[in-house]
Amino acid sequence: MTEASLAFAPEPVIDYVMNGRVQGRVGNRDDIMAPYGCYRCRGEDKWVAIAVSSDEEWVAFCNAIGHPDWSRKEEFSDVLVSLKNQDELDRLIGNGQ
After folding, report:
1. Parent domain of 32
2. Total structural domains within the chain
3. Is residue 34 within 8 Å of 93, Cβ to Cβ?
């Protein structure tokens, strides 16, 4: 069972073995993707899971939700920059602004 369980969390295990670091909770966040999480939708108890893993997906996502201008904002210009601005990104997506 242990071996099967480790297959679902290789990064924290490797980080601990190699660096001695114990990873904390990340909630609805990912180390390399932004946006990433569950977002509230209109209506009662309506949610959507979103995971954007590349710049191309980010542009397509922005176009799909009717905010193509978000992909041109400096604070979301690529996945790495978006990771630094996750709180603002989550706010925009959550509010649908």
Report:
1. 28-95
2. 1
3. no
pTM summary value: 0.71
Give pLDDT tens digits along the chain (97 positions): 877 877 877 888 888 999 999 987 777 777 778 899 898 888 888 899 999 999 999 999 999 999 999 989 999 888 888 888 988 998 988 876 5
In a domain, 38, yes or no: yes
In a domain, 34, yes or no: yes
C-alpha 53/C-alpha 61 separation (Å) is 11
Please report whether residue 79 resides in a domain: yes
**How many CB atoms within 10 Å of residue 73?**
16
Residue 37 burial class via C-beta count within 10 angstroms: exposed 0-12, middle 13-18, buried 19 and up: buried
